Amino acid sequence: MPSAESAGTPAVAVADVAHRYGDVVALGPLDLTVPPGEFLVLVGASGCGKSTLLRLIAGFERPTTGTVLTGGVPPIPGRGAGLVFQQPRLFPWKTVGGNIELALRYAGRPTDGADALLHRVGLQDVAKRRTWQISGGQQQRVAIARALAADRPLLLLDEPFAALDALTRERLQEDLRSVSTATGRTSIFVTHSVDEAVFLGSRVVVLSPRPGRIVLDLPIPLPRTGITPDDLRGLPEYAALRAEIGHAVRSEGASA
């Protein structure tokens, strides 16, 4: 991985960024710095610019004004970040293992690392199945493993669990939380869910309606290891953080 951490360079630096689509100002201006290893969650009402900000960080779009840097340099699509979308976007003619091997090959890494990635996301028992033969939750696990295969220092996730049922969503939240802790990778996660934001994030940023601006930037000082998900959600601090973020989302400044 790049040595941004050792050099003290922010994983992501967004400076005075605004973005337009024609006459519509979708985002900003805003400033945001993400240190290496942080799990940042962007939350806000639909249309507030969360996904736009993620695309700018991924390098899929350039800001109308301002600068975006990842690891100290302008982002290049597919080079600086692993990506997980709402739909898994897998290759249906390949097996689960074949999708991971292809991602490793594309990243210039040995394909024998596929087994370790499959174990990491709990898919070792379905490696030889086609992707259309597994559940939606399992498909999203493949997408996460594929993003990890790229071995990028930054992981960007755009509402990856939004289309899943509540039970599967909770299980994948737990899995992602464990993977994030184990890898120490910088992650930026987009969601509408306040509970998901508090459960996953080490920091939560709430955006206002269009044009999206930061109305709350809140660290989440909750334990990440040595506690069960149920016990975590039962903590008084968890309830207090959820209430504060929920109020910001619902308030006049952050509701649609």
Write up this protein:
The chain is an alpha/beta fold. It has a domain at 1-78 and 188-230 and 242-256: Rossmann fold. 35% of the residues lie in helices and 23% in strands. The protein has 9 helices and 9 strands. It has helices at 4-7, 50-58, 96-106, 114-120, 136-149, 166-183, 194-200, 229-233, 236-250; strands at 12-21, 24-34, 39-43, 65-70, 81-84, 154-158, 186-191, 203-207, 214-219. The strands form 2 sheets. A 6-stranded mixed sheet has the order 5-6-7-3-8-9, with helices on both faces. A 3-stranded antiparallel sheet has the order 2-1-4, covered by helices on one side. The radius of gyration is 18 Å and the shape is globular. Residues 1-6 and 252-256 have low confidence and may be disordered.
Overview in brief:
The chain is α/β, with parallel strands linked by helices and 256 residues long. The protein has helices spanning 4-7, 50-58, 96-106, 114-120, 136-149, 166-183, 194-200, 229-233, 236-250, and strands spanning 12-21, 24-34, 39-43, 65-70, 81-84, 154-158, 186-191, 203-207, 214-219. It has a domain at 1-78 and 188-230 and 242-256: P-loop containing nucleotide triphosphate hydrolases (Rossmann fold), CATH 3.40.50.
